[in-house]
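Project outcomes to date are best conveyed with an example. Our students and postdoctoral researchers have been running inverse folding experiments weekly, and each run begins with a structure described purely in tokens. The record below, which covers 198 residues, was selected by the lab manager from last quarter's runs and is presented without edits.
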């Protein structure tokens, strides 16, 4: 598995255009509409139950997209990777969905800008994104909203060993199943970050 880690200053996000009308904070009552729109029920349920913040985009009365955000208290992780967030300062974009007929309309960007305003009002400074390297739509969305790529992380299982690369550099080899921890750099001037074994 290969993931790209992005980071952006929330003040840069809110300096852009205002989000379109119809973007709002999600509510637990949105569950059925989200699932009917095509969102994965497990993601919706975990976002609602673990205290994550989710943002929805509506056209008329119909939900056409959602994005989910977590803080250090509830940041999810892949089976092999945890992103370390600064408490009260970092928020992590952990997934989302836009209906097929609404794709290409920059809805993800509008939801990201709405979320940026929401989190800046609560004192947060930076948004971290972790994107599967095969998700070209999400990679494009991150690139178009001014985020900086801070790392490429690759995990390969070789028999009982887990091998993790950061960019082209081998970082860790081990036989344990505990996740690795990625520490995002505090500034864009140090874009590599650090992956550590727990």
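After processing, the design step wrote out the following sequence:
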């Amino acid at each position: 598995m290969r993931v790209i880690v992005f980071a952006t200053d929330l003040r840069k996000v809110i300096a852009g255009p205002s989000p379109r009308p119809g973007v709002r904070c999600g509510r637990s009552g949105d569950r059925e509409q989200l699932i009917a729109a095509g969102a994965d029920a497990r993601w919706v349920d975990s976002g609602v139950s673990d205290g994550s913040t989710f943002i929805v985009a509506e056209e008329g009365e119909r939900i056409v997209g959602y994005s989910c955000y977590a803080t250090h208290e509830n940041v999810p992780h892949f089976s092999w990777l945890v992103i370390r967030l600064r408490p009260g300062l970092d928020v992590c974009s952990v997934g989302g969905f836009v209906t097929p007929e609404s794709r290409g309309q920059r809805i993800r960007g509008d939801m990201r800008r709405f979320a940026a305003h929401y989190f800046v009002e609560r004192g947060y400074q930076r948004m971290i994104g972790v994107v599967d390297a095969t998700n070209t739509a999400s990679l494009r969305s991150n690139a178009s909203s001014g985020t900086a790529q801070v790392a490429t992380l690759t995990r390969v299982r070789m028999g009982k060993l887990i091998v993790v690369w950061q960019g082209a550099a081998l970082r860790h080899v081990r036989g344990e199943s505990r996740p690795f921890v990625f520490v995002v750099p505090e500034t864009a001037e140090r874009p590599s970050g650090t992956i550590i074994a727990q």
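The first strand starts at residue 2 and ends at 9. The chain has one domain: 2-197. The training component of this project remains on track.
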